[in-house]
Specification:
single chain, mainly alpha, Growth Hormone, Chain: A, about 80% helix, globular
């Protein structure tokens, strides 16, 4: 029997089949309501897989996912760009060498990016929501314990390792799930999402400085831990794609069923009117029978009385039979429609289990005992709703947690090395930019303003590139623009050592920030264009791991050049050379990609 559970509406398979058969038989010879097609549509809605009708991508909850990813980038990106402020506070508190103190921020960034494969594996095995929620726990604990660290090595573990793991698990799933929710407007969605880095760069460094001055070292880290708790809210916005499909399907069912109920009510009314007309005919027959009886009684003839009474019963039966014969299936249709309506308003527990295979039978576990089983089943239900596992398949089609075979594809491998060199160059430039500006006679406060200006234009570049390169005529040229961004950044870095005044630095690093934002915005979009949406989780996780390698190698190598040559000019020459190499590797990756697309087109034509 179908049951109601949680206000959701689905059909039991047996109910759907029975209703379909009743309607098919009732519709023969009836013009009251012909609705067998509705059952077929309802059955199609219940099938697993892609829903019928228009695509659910690029709209609706997809924009809430973008909002969540934007907030995650504000928090994570803003705190990452505040490493300079943290460096000064740690130096004044622990009085250690600059090299030792710098390991806190450097290790945090490296661990964050190195957690990419783990985050991608969690997204594949469970969901983006589960990965971000786990990251939020470590993120918060790492910041809170950092404020209580009695020595710098313990702080490096708390701030660099624990908080870095939390950052990594919170950062990567955002871009992965945005790529899953968007198709035609993926560039715009990613651009708006990653724009949070620029917003965080503009807002959080002054905020961090303010709370350290106001609440002290421990109080500031406690407040930052509270700020990291907002990542929990971000995780709840990352609704798993398969859960979103089920919600949309149930919503479409409700819309179709509401229309069907209206038609059923109209059909019921017309059937009742026709039945009333037939009953009126029965009433006339009964009147004639009573007249006959009266005449017979006046003649005191018992035999006539019996005959007339028998005639009355025969006429009544004939009238009732004629009512059913004149409308074959009409009343059956009304009954079947009412049954369909009742069945449509109920929910099948077995159907619900089929959509959520990881949940247990709530009816058996919740109501068999009033004592110990109630609380665990409720908790399991809440956890299953908040952290649903992706549908699992068995046998040879079992889903892989991490596809390391991607590293054997030249397209992806060259792309990863290109991103690695780009990250090493970018990190080195941002670390040593204030020192270079100060060596040119510019004050430290103006150097901070220079970073703020670069962060604002970074946001503008992300949004602009997402909108412009998301236009249909330019989508096929995304890889060309992506390469152009790299070579333009290379040219700007080669120009930096020749700058001498603050306005010149503003002009160059304003363009640098805009191009950097445009490049980062298209990173995951280019990845989907190369490998497809199905491999986004594993490929993006591996890509972030290569970013972590670049983040770890770039600044130490640049610092070595500074120690050898005694000035910062060679640092930016090295950064420009790494970007030039990254651009060449990206060109090679594009060549392999075009060859593969051409081979696939030829094979499809041959088939």
């Amino acid at each position: 029997m179908p049951e109601r559970l949680g206000g959701s509406e689905t059909y039991d398979d047996s109910t759907v089949q029975k209703t379909k058969a009743d309607q098919a038989s009732a519709a023969q010879g009836s013009n009251c309501l012909d609705a067998p097609h509705l059952v077929g549509e309802s059955e199609s809605l219940l099938k697993d897989g892609a829903p019928a009708g228009p695509s659910m991508e690029d709209r609706g909850w997809a924009w809430m996912v973008v909002l969540g990813c934007f907030l995650a980038h504000v928090i994570t990106g803003g705190l990452e760009r505040s490493d300079g402020v943290f460096f000064l506070k740690l130096t004044s508190r622990y009085d250690e060498s600059a090299q030792m103190t710098a390991w806190a921020g450097a290790l945090s960034g490296t661990v964050m990016l190195s957690m990419g494969p783990v985050a991608g594996a969690l997204c594949n095995r469970y969901s983006a929501r589960a990965s971000v929620m786990a990251g939020a726990v470590l993120y918060t604990l790492g910041l809170v314990f950092s404020g209580l660290a009695p020595s710098l090595p313990i702080l490096i573990v708390c701030f660099g390792v624990v908080q870095g793991i939390g950052r990594g698990l919170s950062y990567a799933p955002g871009l992965i799930i945005v790529g899953m929710y968007f198709n035609r407007r993926r560039g715009l969605g990613v651009g708006l999402s990653t724009a949070g880095v620029g917003a965080g760069t503009f807002l959080l460094p002054p905020f961090v400085e303010l709370i350290f001055e106001t609440y002290g070292f421990s109080g500031a880290f406690l407040i930052l831990g509270g700020l990291a708790c907002n990542v929990f809210l971000v995780a709840m916005l990352y609704r798993p794609v398969f859960m979103h499909r089920q919600i949309v399907l149930r919503h479409r069912q409700k819309q179709r069923l509401s229309k069907h109920v209206e038609l059923t009510v109209e059909s019921d009314s017309s059937c009742r009117e026709e039945l009333l007309k037939k009953r009126t005919g029965v009433g006339n027959s009964l009147t004639n029978s009573h007249t006959c009886t009266s005449k017979t009684l006046s003649g005191d003839t018992p035999t006539s009385l019996n005959d007339c009474t028998h005639a009355k019963d025969e006429k009544t039966s004939e009238a009732l039979v004629s009512t059913n014969q004149h409308q074959p299936g009409r009343c059956d249709l009304c009954r079947s429609q009412r049954n369909f309506e009742l069945n449509a308003e109920s929910t099948s527990v077995s159907s619900l289990r089929r959509h959520c295979q990881h949940t247990t039978d709530l009816e058996d576990q919740t109501f068999t005992s009033r004592g110990k089983l109630v609380l665990p089943s409720c908790l399991r239900s809440v956890l299953a709703t908040c952290f649903p596992a992706e549908k699992r398949s068995t046998g040879t089609q079992r889903r892989k947690i991490m596809e390391l075979s991607l590293l054997r594809e030249p397209v992806f491998l060259f792309y990863c090395f290109s991103i690695c060199l780009y990250t090493a160059s970018l990190k080195s430039s941002l670390v040593f930019l204030p020192a270079l500006v100060k060596s040119r006679g510019v004050s430290e406060i103006h150097a901070a303003y220079l970073l703020s200006i670069s962060g604002i234009l970074d946001t503008i570049g992300r949004v602009t590139s997402g909108v412009v390169l998301g236009l249909r005529p330019l989508q096929r040229l995304r890889s060309v623009f992506f390469n152009a961004f790299v070579f333009l950044l290379c040219a700007l870095l080669f120009v930096v050592p020749s700058l001498s005044s603050f306005p010149e630095f503003v002009a160059v690093f304003g363009m640098f920030g805009m191009l950097t934002g445009a490049y980062v915005c298209q990173k995951s979009v280019i990845l989907v264009d190369m490998l497809g949406q199905g491999k986004l989780g594993s490929s993006f996780g591996l890509l972030i791991f290569f970013q972590g390698l670049g983040n770890c190698v770039g600044p130490p190598l640049s610092g070595l050049l500074k120690d050898v040559f005694g000035q910062y000019d060679e640092v930016f020459y090295l950064s420009g050379g790494m970007l030039a190499t990254a651009g060449c590797l990206m060109v090679i990756s594009n060549i392999f990609h075009r060859r593969r697309v051409r081979r696939q087109a030829i094979s499809m034509t041959a088939q």
